[in-house]
Write a structure and sequence with these properties.
Strand content: 25-35%
Structural class: alpha+beta
Strand order of the largest sheet: 1-2-3-6-7
Radius of gyration: 15 Å
Number of helices: 3
Distance between the termini: 39 Å
Amino acid sequence: MSVLPILRYPDARLRRPCLPVGAPDAALRQLAADMLETMYAAPGRGLAAPQVGVLKRLLVMDPGWKEGAPTPLICLDPEILEASEEQHTGPEGCLSIPDVPALVSRPAWVLLRWRDLDGQVHTERLTGMAAICAQHELDHLNGRLIIDLMDEEARLAASPLLVAMGEGA
């Protein structure tokens, strides 16, 4: 396994929608293992393939590892089937946009479906940090970033940091 470089905003690949993964193979297994190692080293709670320059619908996450034992989850071609009307608003950070926290409102729970590296389909209702991580990483797979979810006031406050990262005026 190896730690991969994480793309930083405003890299254009972070804005591109990703393609389906297809059948799991040895290369995909290696990518998933490297992504997990990269996520833990960063240290983050989730990482999507476009953040390491791979435009495929693959994400890894481990929402609770900082508070306990690691329980990594690898999701191929994930999709949200349902989401609660109830919203949770809280701060989120992003490994591709370091030092720019965003106050984000998201559904409090989601019903997520994905395939694992053995091709098995899973469906699970995620709540709390797991729901937030899944939605955040799915946004990456769709070319959306946390800064897109900021209100105008928050985006203006973050603007100097975004300009310094290369966004421009």
